[in-house]
Structure formats: C-alpha cells, structure tokens
Amino acid sequence: MDKYVKSPIIIALQNARALSSQTLVRPREAAAILGVSRKHLYVLASQQDFPEKVSISNGAVAWRVCDLEAWILNKFNNT
Q1: Residue 17 DSSP class
Q2: Global confidence as pTM
Q3: How confident is the model at residue 45, as a pLDDT?
Q4: What's the rounded Cα separation, in Å, for the pair 11 and 65?
Q5: What does the alpha-carbon distance between residue 70 and residue 58 come to, in Å, rounded to a whole number?
Q6: Helix-, strand-, coil-residue percentages of the chain, each rounded to 5
Q7: Mean pLDDT per 10-residue run, the chain (79 residues)?
Q8: Under a CB-based contact definition with an 8 Å cutoff, are residues 44 and 50 in contact?
Q9: Which of 13, 46, 51, 60 registers the highest number of CB atoms within 10 A of its CB?
C-alpha cells in the first residue's frame, strides 16, 4: 500500500496539466491551476481583468484552461 496519500490539490494540478487548452475546469481545478484557494479564486474572479467564468448549469460554473493560462502569462509579462 502506498504510504503517501495525494491531496485533492495535487491530484487537481496533475489533472489540469493533462487537459487540453479548450477544456473547462471547475473551481477546484481552476484554483489549483492558479495555486490559490477556491475562496481566493472568487476574489480574483470579481476583478475586471480576470477571465470570464462559463455557466455550465444552474449554479455550476467553470473556466477555460486557455483563458486561465493567458491570464497567468499576462500577469507575469506585466511584472
């Protein structure tokens, strides 16, 4: 038996890296891609320059991986 148990964040990061750029990710995976908590993700989402979330059903939202990656690159290029 594996003595190391992977946390949900580690699993989400590994899954996010395997996704195509057009894939939609739910808040847990989006937060993991950005390296922030889900609470902080929603703080970021309230800012004008953050990628727009996509409504996938009543009360369920997601973000496009390509939009999150572009936002990250833009933040690094502007620092």
Answers
A1: H
A2: 0.72
A3: 97
A4: 16
A5: 27
A6: 50, 15, 35
A7: 64 67 88 94 96 94 92 83
A8: yes
A9: 51
